[in-house]
Write a structure and sequence with these properties.
The chain contains 21 helices and three strands. The protein has 467 residues and is mostly helical. It has one domain. The termini are far apart. The C terminus is likely disordered.
Length: 467
């Protein structure tokens, strides 16, 4: 008994960490009232992406299949494909499979999408997106040990990453990007922990967990595969013996294999291979989209020229950075993250830390270029650019390197202004980041207008009316 008392006394400070909990609690206080089923319960305001994902969850639990033919949103969502006469969502299926676990519990207690759709959607959004985003603030708090910051500063960094990167904008609607970003941060946090331990024999569990988190991020949001592969370079940069580093990379890759294998089993029944339906450039007669892209037609031949393609990619890059969906026109505080990366590169940081910073930049640029040269329409980008929510939190995390150094008052004022603007825009986005038809203007203005004058408010059928 005395041993137990001594143990509890020695660990008393570790049982409750107010600073570690402060940022996640603040994020929950901001996001829970804005969760889409509460703020906008009308069916007509739901995006195709959300409807398709909910349909797959319902199909898995109620019909034991991925085919969504007999589900609530089967004929209202446009994000579908037809395979051998059956209708499927074109999304990667792993996230829906994960969400089917809480829905299975609700379904067997009589709470169903057919009769209690508002509460089901609310709970699934909380479990699948809102709570993970809140926990990501705690992950950044943990990762902040890398910069030797005090607890208040680490809590502030965690809150800043969630608010300033646009991650909070996607914490209120069911989507894959925010959850994938949280798993990517989890992988980074595990690798930071490995670096702090700096002992291969005590780090195998963290390495495997990093692989699982990176693999889950990739199968939920496929562009994250760039980071899942590149993070193996971080593992190889730890200052261990060559054999230990090779073993560490194998452990990491084995951890990443499990989610990929799970994805393969699920996706094979839809497309017949590993590639999710929405990434396939064309479909044969047995696998086709139900919606035709507006830019498909005779003009494709005219746009196939090399010079035209280069010019198009250039202007898309401009839009990515400073346009109506631009990163820096919405979240200029990301400049602080870039400054932090340059400081890490110019100081005597461990090689693994420098490699993690390098992977952050290289992976981000790779995904940016991917969307610049792709045929994806910007109307599908939603608030800011939803595809880049994946890596923006990790990029802003490096602002911690800037925080640890002394600065002039004007520098603090400038950083505060950038943070205030980015946080304000992000919170505006949280009120409606995923409207059904996207945005046709600067998205912060569009989200504010949708908040003040909801589209189709008079004609939309509330979810409660279906119960």
């Amino acid at each position: 008994m005395q041993f137990l008392i001594n143990y509890l006394n020695s660990h008393e400070r570790q049982l409750v960490r107010p600073w570690a909990l402060s940022a996640p609690i603040l994020v929950l206080l901001l996001t829970v009232p804005l969760v889409r089923p509460l703020l906008r319960p009308e069916l007509d305001t739901m995006s195709d992406d959300e409807q398709a994902r909910l349909s797959t969850v319902q199909a898995i639990v109620e019909h034991h299949t991925l085919a969504i033919d007999n589900t609530l949103f089967a004929h209202s969502t446009r994000d579908t494909i037809t395979v051998h006469g059956h209708l499927y969502s074109d999304q990667p299926p792993v996230m829906a499979a994960m969400l089917s676990v809480p829905y299975w519990v609700m379904f067997h207690r009589g709470v169903t999408l057919e009769h209690n759709s508002l509460w089901v959607m609310f709970i699934l959004t909380l479990v699948g997106v809102t709570v993970p985003v809140a926990l990501s603030a705690g992950l950044v708090y943990k990762m902040g040990r890398l910069f030797e910051l005090g607890r208040p500063w680490r809590a502030a960094l965690g809150l800043a990453v969630v608010l300033g990167s646009g991650l909070i904008s996607y914490a209120t609607v069911l989507n894959a990007h925010a959850l994938a970003a949280t798993f990517l941060l989890s992988a980074g946090a595990c690798l930071v922990q490995v670096g702090l331990i700096n002992d291969m024999r005590k780090s195998s569990g963290w390495l495997a967990l990093a692989g699982v988190a990176a693999g889950l991020s990739a199968v939920i949001d496929p562009p994250a595969l760039v980071f899942a592969v590149a993070l193996a370079l971080v593992v190889g940069a730890f200052r261990w013996r060559l054999g230990a580093r090779a073993l560490a990379i194998c452990i990491y890759l084995l951890g990443a294999t499990a989610p990929v294998a799970f994805h393969a089993v699920l996706n094979e029944s839809i497309t017949g291979d590993l590639v999710p339906a929405y990434l396939r450039p064309q479909f044969d007669s047995s696998l086709r989209r139900e919606i035709v892209r507006p830019d498909a037609g005779e003009d494709d031949d005219d746009e196939s020229g090399f010079q035209v393609g280069i010019a198009r990619a250039f202007w898309r890059a401009v839009d990515v950075l400073i346009g109506t969906h631009g990163i820096f026109t919405h979240f200029p505080v990301l400049v602080m993250g870039l400054l932090g990366i340059t400081m890490v590169m110019h100081r005597h940081w461990p090689s693994s830390t420098k490699m993690l910073a390098t992977v952050t930049v290289a992976g981000s640029v790779a995904i940016l270029l991917l969307y610049c040269v792709s045929s994806t329409e910007w109307g599908e980008a939603m608030f800011a650019t939803r595809w880049f929510v994946l890596f923006l939190p990790l990029m802003l995390f490096w602002a911690g390197a800037w925080l640890r150094r002394p600065h002039r008052p004007m520098s603090w004022v400038a950083a505060g202004v950038l943070m205030a603007f980015s946080a304000t825009v992000s919170i505006i986005g949280a009120t409606g980041s995923f409207p059904r038809d996207g945005f046709d203007r600067y998205t912060a203005v569009g989200a504010m207008q949708n908040l003040l004058s909801p589209p189709n408010a008079a004609s939309a059928a509330p979810v409660l009316a279906r119960q």
